[in-house]
Amino acid sequence: MRKWLMRRFGKARLMRWFLTLYPPYLGAGVRVRHISDDFRDIRVSMGLGRHNRNYVGTQFGGSLYSMVDPFFMLMLMENLGPRYIVWDKAADIDFISPGKGPVFARFSIDDALLDDVRRQTANGDKYLPQLQVDIHDGAGTLVARVGKTLYVRLKPQARQA
């Protein structure tokens, strides 16, 4: 059944549906708007509603962070393949201005990043790439900047080969 779904709809499309229906995202109003077929471009949005509004009526910081949490890890996992371990290691968020309405984030990775990761991990060492995503409101105002540190390493079987 899983293989049929993958062939019929494509992995990126199924992932988008799954993440949009994922209960924490559904409750917070997070919507995955786009995942490119090669998992190198992802766009996410989050409305402002009663489940993600803080005491002063703006976007709750925890919801802003959860909106962007898994995507760089997923993108690297999909692009590097099953020979690699990819984990989130650390994160920081800098709140710039209040999110008073819907907010948006766009993630992208390129060949240069993937080549760098492969080069840094080729001899079996871990690599801790630092990536950044900005969260903007509908007018383009920067609401928050999130830094992510990932842990990437070849799996033990791949290191021995």
Strand content: 25-35%
Biggest sheet overview: 6 strands, antiparallel
Radius of gyration based on Cα positions: 17 Å
Average residue-wise pLDDT:
93
Shape: globular
In spatial order, strands of the major sheet run 1-2-4-5-6-3
CATH topology: Thiol Ester Dehydrase, Chain A
Helix content: 25-40%
Pfam families: DUF4442
Organism: Pseudomonas ekonensis
Protein name: DUF4442 domain-containing protein
Keywords:
161 residues, alpha+beta, Thiol Ester Dehydrase, Chain A, 37% helix, 32% strand, globular
Write a short abstract of this structure.
The chain has 161 residues and is an alpha+beta fold. Helix content is 37%, strand content 32%.
Describe this entry's structure for a reader.
- The protein is α+β, with helices and mostly antiparallel strands.
- It has one domain (2-160): Thiol Ester Dehydrase, Chain A (Roll), CATH 3.10.129.
- It contains seven helices and six strands; from the N terminus they run αααββααββαββα.
- A six-stranded antiparallel sheet has the order 1-2-4-5-6-3.
- A hairpin with a 5-residue loop joins strand 1 and strand 2.
- Helix 1 (2-9) crosses helix 2 (11-21).
- The model has no long low-confidence stretch (mean pLDDT 93).
Protein topology:
Layout: H1 2-9, H2 11-21, H3 23-28, E1 30-35, E2 41-46, H4 61-68, H5 71-80, E3 84-95, E4 103-108, H6 111-121, E5 130-137, E6 142-154, H7 156-160
Antiparallel strand pairs: 1-2, 2-4, 3-6, 4-5, 5-6
